[in-house]
Structures are given as C-alpha cells and as structure tokens.
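hey m, so remember when u said the tokens were messed up on ur end? i reran from scratch. heres the input so u can diff it against urs
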Amino acid sequence: MRNTEEVQNVADNLVGELEKKKQILQKKLSAIGKLDLLINVLTYKIFETQHEYRKRMEELCLEKESVLTKRDIPNAKIAITVAEIEKKMNDLRNMHEENLASLEGQRNELRIESANKIQHMDATMDSLKIQHNTILNELETSKLTANPTETAEINRRILELNKMYQKDIEILNQLQIDGWKDYDQQEKIAELLEHRGLRVTPSGNFLTKSGNCLTKSEASCLGLLEGLSIGSWSDFLKRQKEFEGIKSPPSSTTTEVSEVSKMDSDDVQYLKTVFGKPLSLALAQISAKQPRDPIHYLGHWLFKYRYNQEISQTKKNEIQELINERERLEKEKLNAILEEEARAAVFNMIIRAEEEAIRNELERIARETMAMMVEDEGADSEARDVLGVYDGPSVGR
C-alpha cells in the first residue's frame, strides 16, 4: 500500500493531467462550435440553392407554357423556342446537381470531422472522470493511515478536487450528454426546425428541403411548428439576420477552422505515427528482456525496426510497380482489341453502305425501265385514239 506522501504526489500529478485534459476538451469544444457554424452555413446554402433552383425552374416552365399557347407565331419558331427553353432547363438542372453535390460533400466532410472530434472528446471525458474518481479513492484510503496534519491536507485536496469537479467537470459532463452542443435556446429551435426540414429566412419565411417557401402561418397549418416555443418572433428573426450577416463562401472559414483544429493535433498525430508503434514494441521488448543498457538497446531496436520498415516499403513499391506494369499491359491489350473491333465495325458499315448503294441503284434502274414501258404503252394507246380503227382494203396480193 502506498504511503500518504506517495498518494499526495500521485494526486498532484493526476490533478495536473486533469487540468491538461480539461484544456484539451475546451479547445476541442471551440473547434466543434466552429464546425457546427460551418455546417449551419452550408445547410442554409443548400436550402437556399434548392429554393432558387425551384423558383427558376418554375419560371422556365411558365415561359414554356406561354410559348406553347401562342397562336400568332409559326410552329417552327415555337418548336425552336421550346427547344431553347428545354436546353436552359437541362443546363440549370445539371448545374444545380453539381452545386448541390459539392455543398453536400463539403457538409458531410465537416460532419465526419466533427464526429471524429466528438468521439475523441468522449474518450477524453471518460478518462478524466475515471482519473478523478481514482484520485478521490486514493485520498480517502490514505486517510486511514495518516496523522492529523496529513488528514487535514488530504481533506483540503479532496475539497479542492470536488470544487474543480463542480466548477468544470460537471459542466463538461452535461455538454457530453447534449452531444457537445453548447447551444442557446434559439440555436436549439433552429436545430429542431432543421430536423423537420425547415430553415428560417431573415424575412421570416421558412425554406423546405424541396425548395418551397412557406410563411409562418402556412408552416403552422402544416403542423411543422407544433411543440416549438419560439418565444419572441422578432428576437428570433434578429438572430437569423445576424446569421445571414456571417453567411459567406465556406472555403475561407473552413480553412481557418481546419488550421485551428490541426494546431493541437498535428504534432501529436505526427509523433504517434512515427514513434507510437515502434516505441510501444520496443518498450515491451525492454520490459521482457531487461537489458543492461536499455537506452542502447532501444536505439539498436529502433534502428533495426526502421531498416526492416524501409526494406518492407521497398518490396511494396516493387510489387506496386509490377502491378502497375501488368495493368498497363492489360490496358494496351484491351485497347488493341477495342481498336480491332472498331475497325471491323467500320468495315462492316462500309460494306453495308456499298450494298445499300447498289440496291438503290438497281431499284432506280428498275423504276426508270418501268416508267419507259408505261410511256411506250401510253404512246401506242394515244396513236390508236387519234387514227381510229383502219377499215380500208387489205394490202397484199
């Protein structure tokens, strides 16, 4: 069993770790807040894009119907105008799909990044609570063998830990229960509206996912505002106008948040990637073999590990080069087969075209021959009609 001094030293170290983890959680919480802001901006942009697309498509449909109902212009011009309108509609549809896919892709990336951070924060929070309970248990146990002076010091430390827990950890615990969402009432209402497929515009209307624009009364009649206590509608709209003021293209803000979020993770991630696994394996070997010079053994082991890693990477590169070469040869073979098939198809088309030309020529000759025969028969018939029937004497002896 540890003595009181050891317990107090361990408690001091654990308190320092708790403070560090608490600061890490606060930094992560700030980064998640910025990510949520970007996600909200992109979500609003998606709703707005849907609304603009729907409105423009309705205008083109009305224009098309107007052209089709006109009777004072030729049908050929109507067909050309309708074709131009349909081309505009197709171009608009394609452009809208590309823009929507881009916005949703950016939003999904931010959501994945936010989910990863939340997962890391959950693990940090669980570790923080376990360490806090461990400190309290150690201190309470150490009181059993402590003298009055030590007991007073231990009680002071316990009181300090409980104050820290009530001041910070309970707040963080509540944030964890809420999914690390530090929202005020209006932000919670906006999130609930989004779950129902609605976004509030600064003008006080509602945009739906499909691009429709609803007034407050229309949304209420459809039951979309049921159970929501919006409170002061003017305050809510004021908040939405403030949100509209910060709405901007997400690229610059995304870069800023990415840089901020990476500041406290890039170095740690690099060290984990480069030294995490080899150090863990080396320390396990040192613990198992207990060498005389652990530092020398560690350096030699890391050198061997790095050498083996380079050999393994070289082999992987060679295998990848062979795979790439095989794929290149297969592509060349496939291209040759496709070219041969294309050439054969072209020859078949030429032969069919020649046969069709010969058949058409024979049909033309037959039609001309038939026409000539009809003309000859018509000439003979006309001659008989003009001269009449011959009733004179027969010629001959």
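this time it looks ok to me. The longest strand covers residues 198-200. if urs says something different then somethings off w ur setup not the seq
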